[in-house]
Amino acid sequence: AGVSRSVAVVTAYLMKTEGLSWEEAYAAVRAAKPDAEMNPGFQAQLKLYEAMGCTVDVSSPLYKQYRLQVLTECYSELQDLPQEVFAADPTSTCQTPDTEILYRCRKCRRALFRSSSILSHTEGSGPTAFAHKRITGSAQLRGGGRETCTSYFTEPVQWMEPALLGVLEGQLLCPKCASKLGSFSWRGERCSCGRWVTPAFQIHKSRVDEARTLPLGNIQAAKT
Ligand SMILES: [Zn+2]
Ligand SMILES: [Zn+2]
Predict the structure, then answer these.
(1) How far apart are CA 126 and CA 122, in angstroms?
(2) Which of 63, 76, 113, 205 is the most buried (most CB within 10 A)?
């Protein structure tokens, strides 16, 4: 493992300093040191590193989705999930930054998640895509993909925890009014656009409303 790790570190260094793709960098390392090897876990991490532009941005949707995938593999029982997996419940923290959109239950207005929890995906491409052949051929058009996703895929939020533990899939219900919001599956679900997301926590767009955060002084006015 020590060898694999040092190979990965050198490969990552070459990617960053020389602007190489992870494959080019790995090939360069192996050319210099033919017995250099890297396990598939490190290879996956370097692919992610490349996709993030050779920076590690822990708020990136790519990073969050990758972390969830690793977690799913490690916690086969799905009990006692580490708390940092869950995004804070928007009702437990008083302020949402101006840059974020808050999503509320359409029925009872309970705050459910913030825009930073959305793990967006592009249609039919990327590391976790299962080519859905009828769609991927023609639907690569940029920008046209937005309308075809009928759900938001999010990271798990604190209020989902009781529903998620110990089961592989199920429904996501509003924690306040219990109306159905969407579903989850640790094994993954297919978005309406054809893209597989693993694991998947999806909230139907029709069940929530966007609430842009207002400057502090306007909050009281907006409530009345
Ligand atoms: Zn989609
Ligand atoms: Zn509700």
Answers:
(1) 7
(2) 113
Contacts of 49 (CB under 8 A, 6+ apart): 12, 15, 22, 56
CA-to-CA distance for 131 and 163, rounded, in angstroms? Answer: 30
Q: CA-CA-CA-CA torsion for 126, 132, 133, 138, nearest 10 degrees?
A: -70
Query: How far away, in angstroms, is 107 Cα from ligand 2 center?
Result: 5
Architecture of domain 83-212: Beta Complex (2.170)
Report the pLDDT value the prediction gives residue 77, as an integer from 0 to 100: 65
Q: For residue 184, list its beta bridge partners.
A: 170, 201
**What SS3 state is found at 95?**
coil
**Ligand nearest to the CA of residue 179, numbered in listed order:** 2
ipTM of predicted assembly, 2 dp = 0.95
174 vs 166: CA distance, rounded Å = 19
Considering the domain 2-56 in this protein, what is its CATH number? 3.90.190.10
CA of 111 to the centre of ligand 1 (A): 23
Q: Where in the chain is the domain with CATH 3.90.190.10?
A: 2-56
Q: Where are the beta strands (DSSP E) in the chain?
A: 101-105, 111-114, 151-153, 169-173, 180-185, 189-190, 196-197, 200-204, 208-212
